[in-house]
Amino acid sequence: MTTPLPKVIFQDADAQTAPGSSNKHVSVDPEGNHLVDLEFIEEPLGVTAEQGQGFLRVEFGEAIGPDSRYEVARKLGWGMNSSIWLALDRKENKYVAIKALKGYATNLAKRGITWELPALERIASEPPPAEFKSTHWPRLLDHFVHPGSGEDGEHLCLVTDVLGGDVEELQVKVAKKKGLPLPLAKRILLHTLRGLFHLHSCSIVHTDLKHDNIMFDLGSQTQADIAALLKADPSRRHPPEESWNCTVEAAVSQPLPLPSLSDAMKRTYLVSDLGCAQPSNVHTFEAVTTPVLRAPELVLKGPWNEKVDIWAFGCLIFELLTRRSLFVYRPEGDVDAEMSHLWQILAFTCERMKREQVEASKLGTQYFNIPADPSGTFCKLKRLIVRDRPFSELLKEYKVLSEEEVIATARIMQRCLRLDPKDRATAKELLRDPWWQVIE
User: Fold this and answer.
1) Which of 26, 183, 291, 300 could form a disulfide with 329 if both were Cys (CB 3.0 to 4.6 A apart)?
2) How far apart (Å, rounded) are the C-alpha atoms in residues 118 and 122?
């Protein structure tokens, strides 16, 4: 899988092309404005917090945090709002993971727009159910604010246990982009559901449940194994790149080795990355969840709660088994992506949208006709005719399950993927489903 280079385009009246640079280009638009076009190998270092970035710049071996407690060892990876670092906790003499929010994201956290730190603190303060043998959510060990470099801004740093990787990487690199074996998929999903149950019990909605936000633990790997890996495969940096007003050298992302599929059956899985988490009763922003995993109430911009996580979970059942998205989010001819998505939702769930749900949504009447008869219960989708295609039919197409398994899998998907959030099962109810028999 080829990842496109991160690209940032800015306007700068005095911009000039850097001599010998291959990643910084300057052009002039029709209005005479100079545009700086930057392409980066990894995260856009040197682009400021004010410009929406401000990623952490740190040296290997540098000590950060209170009393210089954490010695940076290598970069494990990065995402839209943060980079993840392996560090040695010099006080406890063990390795930890540090998630360093970029300057722009730290500003959002300070303003209370994002809620990751309070969410981590809340789930840490609530005891897990006694029947759970492991915790299936991140364990916050420490947090601090790092001052940052230049105009990068400050970095909120969240210290957690080191994890072994995410399910997306496991499926791409170990399962070779195929669906996961049913027992492994069930184990991952059961642990994910336990994590969701704890989050929802703490009145937290994850809002961004997907493959790469489900992580797994280190299994049998020890602290000595990590130290040996660092010695055998030293941390590296990419060649210099031009940035906004400086030259940068990004650290190479060097995640820990992935387990085999058989070893993956022994790992514990966690619901991770609470960067988009929100309290159940307060929504600080509305654009939540990856489009293909959005519940109908999100598509229609209606009231929503923790049941949006249950919808996404139902979609993930299909995705882990088939390596295909249940829904496709894209325009079809003159039909926009949202209308096409809603058509698929109605066809696959074999349900029809309730009048009360349409009327309670900002975009309800944009996509549905309200019945003229006041007693009419259901609304028809505008323009498109819906023909039912149940989940069992979709699962059969991929030939990855037996007939009996298809029926059982379609049944639990149906419990998650109900149009009306009130009809969807809760995480607690789903944990009692017979689909999990003999799975630990």
Assistant:
1) 291
2) 6
Neighbours of 254 (CB within 10 A): 18
CA torsion through residues 162, 115, 110, 101, sign: positive
Q: Which of 298, 390, 404 is nearest to 350 (CA)?
A: 390
Residue 411 main-chain phi, psi, to 5 deg = -65, -45
The pLDDT value given to residue 372: 86
Mean pLDDT of the chain: 92
**Mind listing the domains of the chain with CATH numbers?**
1-39 (no CATH), 56-162+219-255 (3.30.200.20), 163-218+257-439 (1.10.510.10)
Cβ count near 255 (within 10 Å)? 16
Residues contacting 316, CB < 8 A, separation 6+:
189, 192, 209, 210, 211, 293
What predicted TM-score, i.e. pTM, was given to this entire model?
A: 0.91
- pLDDT, tens digit (0-9, with 9 covering 90-100), for 24-82: 665 656 676 657 788 899 999 999 999 999 999 999 999 999 999 999 999 999 999 99
Q: In the numeric block, which tokens belong to residue 369?
A: 């006709």
Cβ 316 vs Cβ 166: under 8 Å: no
Is 94 within any annotated ligand binding site? Answer: no
C-alpha distances out from residue 359 to 156, 217, 296, 337, Å: 41, 45, 13, 21
More confident residue, 411 or 17: 411
Helix or strand holding residue 35 (H, E): strand 34-39
Q: What is the C-alpha separation between 167 and 191, in angstroms, rounded?
A: 12
Q: Where are the beta strands (DSSP E) in 218-304?
A: 241-242, 247-248, 269-271, 278-279
Average pLDDT over residues 386-399: 96
- By the 10 Å C-beta count (0-12 exposed, 13-18 middle, 19+ buried), 112 is classed as exposed
pLDDT tier at 362, thresholds 50, 70, 90: very high
What band does 244 get if pLDDT is binned at 50, 70 and 90? confident
1-15: average pLDDT: 50
Q: Is 202 helix (H, G, I), strand (E, B) or coil?
A: coil
- Residue 85: phi and psi, rounded to 5, are -125, 140
In the structure encoding, which two tokens stand for residue 367, read together? 């996509």
pLDDT in tens, 183-217: 999 999 999 999 999 999 999 999 999 999 999 99
